[in-house]
C-alpha cells in the first residue's frame, strides 16, 4: 500500500505544572505605543487547558495528542495537603494522553509515585528508569507495572506505546534525568540509564519495525533536549520540560526568554524541541506536518496564554489609554480567550479548594517588612537569602522541641521558593508557596570536616565551580553556622573557615575532628546536589515534621522581628 505523502499531528503539551490547578494571576508588562502598561490576566490553569484541548479535539480532522512533559507534583498547597491525589484525579479528567515522570514526581519515592502510576488513566513514561532489581514483593513496587513505560532491561530499550496514526502507527516513549538520585529521592533500587543512549536504541528498534513517526517525551531540560535533538537519528519531535523554558516571542508582555518555538528552523536535519514554560500558565499547541519517514517538514502554532477572565489594568487612572491597550493585548496572536471546563472547575472548587481556603484565612504571624529570598549572594544581598537562615532556624527549634540535641541547621536555597512578603502571613503562604515541598526533617551526627566538604560541594554545584552543576538551588544556608568560601582555592580546600554559634552566644571556629549534630531536610541530608559528604554521618533520625511545619511552629512562638539570624557568610567568588 502506498503511504501518504504528509502526516499531520496537532500536539498539545504542558510541563512543570507543579500542582498549579487554578488559573495564574499574571502581571504582564504590555508594551503599547512606546509605553509599558501593567496588565493583570488570569492565565492557564487545568480547567482552561482542558477546555482548550477539548476544542482542539473537536475541530481537528487529523490526529491529536495531549502530553505532559513531567513535574506534575509538588509546588502548591494542593500537593502539600492532598499528596498527589488531586493531581492524578484532575489529570485524568483533563484527558491526557501521556506523562513522562519528572524529578519532583519521584520526590516521594515509590510510596508517592506508585499511586500516580496506578491511578492514571493514561500511560506514564520513564523509559531510562530501570526497576529490574526491585524485589517482586516490594511494597509499592514499580517493576513490571503495566502502566509504567520503563526501561526493558532484557532488550536494552524503553518500553513504548504505539497508537494508530493515519495509515501507519505513531510511537511514544519518554526519558527522564539520569542524575535523578542527585536531584530527587526515588527508591534506591531505581537505576537511571543514559537518556541519549536509551533513546537512540529505542528509536533504532522502532524503525527496524517500520515505525517512522516517533514522539519523544523528555524531562531533561532545554539544554539536554538540544543535545538530544542534535545527536539523535530518527525521532520526529521532542517534547520537554524541567527548565521552565517558555518558547516563542513574548517580548510584548514582558515574558520573553529569547527562545524560538520548536528551537530550530523547519525543515531541518535537527529534531524540533517543544517546551511550554511552567505552572500551567501556557498551553503549547504545535501543528506538525511530517513526511513518510517521520521528519517534521512544517511546524506552526506556539505557546498560548489562555485567558479565562477579563483583563484589567490595576493602574488605569495613570494610563488613560488602558482600555485600548487591553483591546490590543487581547488581539495578540498568542492570547486565546477560553471558557474553563465546568466539570474540572467544579471539581477543584468543591473537592479541593475548601481546605486550602481555610488555611489561607488562618493567619499565624505578621511580617513587618519583606524578607527577601535569593539563591545566590548578590551585590545588594551579600549574605544571600534573608529568609533561608530563618527557615533553618525553624528546623533547629523544631528538633530541639522534640528533645533532640542539635548544634546547627542546614538548608539548601532551592528548598525555599518565594520571599516572605510584608503583611499577614497564613499557613497557606508557608506550606503552599514558600515551603511547598512535603519533605521531612532529619537529624544526623557528623564531623566538622565532613560538614565543611558538604558545604564546599554544595557551593561548587551551585556556581558550577569544577563540577557539573545541577542548578543554583544547592547553595547552602544555615542557622548557627558561619563559613568562608574561596572559589579560587584548590578543590577540597575552598571552605577556608567554618565556625559554630555556641550555646554561650559566641562564634567558635570548629576543629575538623569535632562531632556535631545537625538537622536538615531529608533531601539535603541524603547527599543530593553536592552535599555528598553528609553521607559520612554516623547516625540519623527522621523527625515526624515537614519543613513547613517547623517554620509555622517557629512563627507561632516568635514574632518575626525578634528572630535571631545566627548565620555568617564570607563568599569570595
TrEMBL record:
Entry keywords, A to Z: Hydrolase, Nucleotide-binding, Signal
Keyword flag Nucleotide-binding: yes
UniProt cross-references to Gene3D superfamilies, sorted A to Z: 3.60.21.10, 5'-Nucleotidase, C-terminal domain (3.90.780.10)
Signal peptide positions (record): none
Name the UniProt record assigns to this protein: Bifunctional metallophosphatase/5'-nucleotidase
Superkingdom assignment: Bacteria
Cellular compartments per GO CC: outer membrane-bounded periplasmic space
Family according to the record: Belongs to the 5'-nucleotidase family.
Native source organism of the sequence: Paraferrimonas sedimenticola
GO molecular function terms noted in the UniProt entry: 5'-nucleotidase activity; nucleotide binding; UDP-sugar diphosphatase activity
Domain 5'-Nucleotidase C-terminal: residue ranges: 386-535
Gene Ontology biological process terms in this record: nucleotide catabolic process
The Calcineurin-like phosphoesterase domain, residue ranges: 10-245
PANTHER family in alphabetical order: 5'-NUCLEOTIDASE, 5'-NUCLEOTIDASE-RELATED
Membrane-spanning ranges: none
One Pfam family from the record: 5_nucleotid_C
